[in-house]
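Chain and backbone:
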Amino acid sequence: MVPHPTLPSLFPLTPLSLSLSLYIYNYVEIPIFCANLISHLQARSMASQAFYLLVLLLSYAVALSDGGSIGINYGRVANDLPSPDKVVELLKSHGLNKVKIYDTDATVLTALANSGISAIVALPNELLASAAADQSFADNWVQSNISRFYPATKIEAIAVGNEVFVDPQNTTKYLVSAMKNVHASLVKLNLDSNIKISSPIALSCLQTSYPSSAGSFKPDLVEPVIKPMLDFLKQTGSYLMVNVYPFFAYSANSDEISLDYALLKENSGVVDSGNGLKYYSLFEAQIDAVFAAMSALKYDDVKMVVTETGWPSMGDENEIGASEANAASYNGNLVRRVLSGNGTPLRPQDPLNVYLFALFNENQKTGPTSERHYGLFYPNQQKVYDIPLTQEELVGGQSTPVNGNTSQVPVTGEVSKTSVGQTWCVANGNAGEEKLKAALDYACGEGGADCGPIQPGAACYNPSTLEAHASYAFNSYYQKKTRATGTCEFSGAAYVVSQPPRYGNCEFPTGY
């Protein structure tokens, strides 16, 4: 990191200057700031030291309160997830009060009612054509899926479509009309001032993203959809939803992009050759590329919310950078950055509002391995890795992301912390006894798993529990099937972990 001047060289140390210094040091690690402060205080009396330290704490608290917000995406492309009621309790127990879902599922919205958790809901891509063509369709959809639940469920925005520009069904032409019609439906119900309309875009809509100052939208999108959408957002006081994934850029260009820069770790920074601004994270550089693209079209006053960002805890061999340690670093450092800082170099006054992707690993998502391993939590609601999620955790000293997982895999027994690049299959304790027994019978019978070690008197018989025995059998089947996609599902009775589970003295194999 570039050396930082000491506080006295910037200005005299006063209560006002301390507040200003915290603002100036938005992009500086707090420990460096504190080290400079402590050095300056050593020359003062004890009473004076106490006074200035009190001012520091108060100023830091103000800085935190002016930070952005953290929400989370609750995807449900899985067959092993807890019920929505349990998910709401999970969110509340971890201080998460903002959630984004990909539909308007009645069970989920009912569970969220009177919880204090605000929600972004979605009108799926497959409904865009109908919503665009028929105002009555939009009216009925809003009445059935929004006003029916609001205000008990705090719906704060509707995402009309998701990454529509890359939708293979070519729904781009319907987007803005659908947004306008859904908004008109809200107006009829006097809900338009409380519920915003937007649509998440992917960074693939950019023609240029480096350097950030040269950010521009693809020409074929500008007139047909980008400008009309930004006009609509401006007129309705809404914001642009953007999905940002530094992981993709790093994985594809790991020979050119520093991993520390991608993970928001300490690094020497990258200077934008166009405007001279210095960036210490790829995340901020990508956001500012979108801001620059909007500015080029004269939409400087449209705000932005990052509706998806995350890092996978596991991936295929060619998915460079996918690991638990990197996922913990990225998401943990991002939470700290969002909650304790202001905006980006290009928009320093606009706090960052971010929705992490995702709440759970989703075992039925298709595509590369990483797609099923973005979750912060396992299906049994235990953390995949431990990171802070609230201001209280940051202030309370729980702000260090795990660089090398120290959290336990959600199974009974001890967990080894030495595994790298391996995966195991374990039983989902929430699946219920009947489902676990049926899956265990299949694995040990028709499935051909090696169940000898869990027989009475054998090495893995103890602990003699259904979950322990099922985990061993499921893993045996999974390993014999060379850990192929879909071989650790058992109709929702199992899921993949990346640390070796161990019950008693039983070690789970990684191959046969």
Residues 249 and 501 are 33 Å apart (CA to CA).
